[in-house]
Amino acid sequence: MINLEKLYQHKLAFGFFSRLLSYPEKGIFHPAVLEESFDSSHPAYPYIQSFLEQVKGYSMDELEEHYTRTFDFEKHSTLYMTYFKYEDGKERGQMLAKLKVLYEMYGLEMPAEELSDYLPLMCEFLYAAEWRGDARSPQSFSILFAVLEDGTWHLLQSLEKNNNPFFHLVKGLRETLKTCVIQGEATNQHA
């Protein structure tokens, strides 16, 4: 079960993850961006510091190239969270439709060019959506979390194997999500 109030407290963090997991923009990797979104007690803070430390020597061109090589050309490190489980099967289409309906239920308009399981979009939804007081939220967010948990676990394995700096960013996201799971529930398959 998801602690929706705790999830709400991490809205700024999800906005941060959405921006950093999107195609790199100038200035987004500056340490000041971290300070605006997290304090040092946040569970993702040390992972994000590690990520920023590893990429600080990259030029913008090198960062863009590394991002593209990692997420666009390596199928084991895709940012599409249902791909790992379903690849291009019928079940994936059904899950994409469920996620799209979820976003629309909470007022997020899907960009026409994007699939609903795109990790930066999922983080953007968690940042922008208003779910408090909505009776549909517990069930709806359980589905979202299942997709995030499974997809980010596979992504994390691939990034770790390749010693990729984005490993730390995804690990920080997973640690943030973990704080929103009510302890004692058997909702996570992966550590």
Automatic annotation (TrEMBL):
Checking InterPro entries in the record gives: DMSO/NO3_reduct_chaperone, NO3_reductase_chaperone_NarJ, TorD-like_sf
Q: In Gene Ontology terms, what is a biological process of this protein? A: nitrate assimilation
Keywords on this record?
Nitrate assimilation
**Top-rank lineage group of the source organism:** Bacteria
Q: What GO molecular function annotations does the UniProt record carry, in alphabetical order? A: metallochaperone activity; unfolded protein binding
* Protein name as it appears in the record: Nitrate reductase
**To which species is this protein native?**
Lederbergia galactosidilytica
